[in-house]
Amino acid sequence: MTATATLPRATRGVKDLYERYVMNTYLRQPLVLTKGKGSRVWDIEGREYLDLFPGWGVSALGHAHRFVQAALRGQAGRILHVPNTYYHPLQARVAKRLAERAFESKVFFCNSGAEAVETAIKLARRWGQGRYEIIVMERSFHGRTTGALSATGQSKYQEGFEPLLPGFVRVPFNDLEAVRRAVTPKTCAVLVEPIQGEGGVRPASTEFLQGLRALCDERQLLLMLDEVQCGLGRTGAWFAYQSSGIEPDVMLLAKALGGGFPIAAVLAKPPVADVLTPGTHATTYGGSPLGCACIEAVLEAITKEGLVERARTLGAYALDRILAMAQHAPLIKEVRGRGLMIGIELVVDGRPMVGLCRDRGLLINCTQETVLRILPAMTITKAQLERGLGILESALVDFAKGSHA
Ligand SMILES: Cc1ncc(COP(=O)(O)O)c(C=O)c1O
Asked: What is the pLDDT of residues 316-369, one digit of tens each?
């Protein structure tokens, strides 16, 4: 990490203010971003970066997409907020569009991925009528609020926050027999990410998802899919579960949904959705006109610009390119992913690679200490992607020299 004293002046000024006034809950890189356009961002010093990890998956349309800008401007001039004690047309329209894209469902709108998970937990418990256990996966990540944290399958995030919410039973990911063994008379649901993001870009196998569907049907459990990170086109399908030919009972969306505006959605099949009756669940900002206008813009952009297909073809290209890179890069242990959601697992701690790439003008992420993760915008050009992967490759070469010196 760059020492504060060596940072450029404007960057240091902002960092100093953070140190004095902002809670220190994030491990931040020494980078102050002030502008973004497509897959490019600029820092306060005027330096440009290519962003292969825009907003942790939020900016899936790229930064400042014109549809989202227009939706925000247009809606801001009409009405910003309508409380959920009234109706407004956008919320209805957007719920219909989501259900049409996904499965026959009703939607609850909220504000973040974790809040969508909280909603799913309440939905499952209420639907379970006394059954309350939810089977969750090792290495899963579902967010930081108390319920979502309890559902998360990584103890490192939970330490110091015990006692957790009871009722979560953790099993190995992609192990259908383990799930089957974990079902008890108290089980009401299984919660799974079709592709674990934070857990190291690990796709659920088709057999696992199909097996879960059959098991849930057999034991009358809800199959709840957390598509907060992998949903909305990124994997080359509108929703990641669609490539397995199954349908969930409940699906959670956030991140890309608002194109940068914080909004999330829980889709549930009608008989399940109907257990949440007036007064059982609510959130003040949920489904605001501003947020729903952004969702509408995002859905329109994905459709009109053919971004699902684009994620599929560009993703296949990127995966091939990285696999070719891996032939000559002994540091690479495995390459995983689907569409534009890709993880490169290294045989060593990959965290220094984030700084090495940043110094060369490229933004990436590293998760689980050894997995380099990229979630490029679905609007990225092939030339930009190629350039980004070229920088990544050269950084890897230098990293290998350094780490084996
Ligand atoms: C799969 C998944 N679920 C839930 C969350 C939590 O979302 P949020 O940070 O919006 O609360 C995340 C965040 O990374 C996630 O990746």
From this structure: 999 999 999 999 999 999 999 999 999 999 999 999 999 999 999 999 999 999
Q: Which CATH number fits domain 66-304: 3.40.640.10, 3.30.70.20, 3.40.50.11320, 3.40.140.10?
A: 3.40.640.10
pLDDT digits (tens, 9 = 90+) for 176-223: 999 999 999 999 999 999 999 999 999 999 999 999 999 999 999 999
- Alpha-carbon distances, residue 29 vs 11, 26, 43 (angstroms): 11, 9, 12
Q: Across all residues in the chain, what is the average pLDDT? A: 97
Of 46, 29, 24, 33, the C-alpha closest to 354 is 29
Rounded to the nearest angstrom, the distance between the alpha carbon of 8 and the centre of ligand 1 is: 32
Q: Looking at domain 31-64+306-403, which CATH architecture does it have? A: Alpha-Beta Complex (3.90)
Q: How far is the CA of 246 from the centre of ligand 1 (A)?
A: 23
Residue with CA nearest ligand 1 atom 16: 229
Give the C-alpha separation, 38 to 151, whole Å.
34
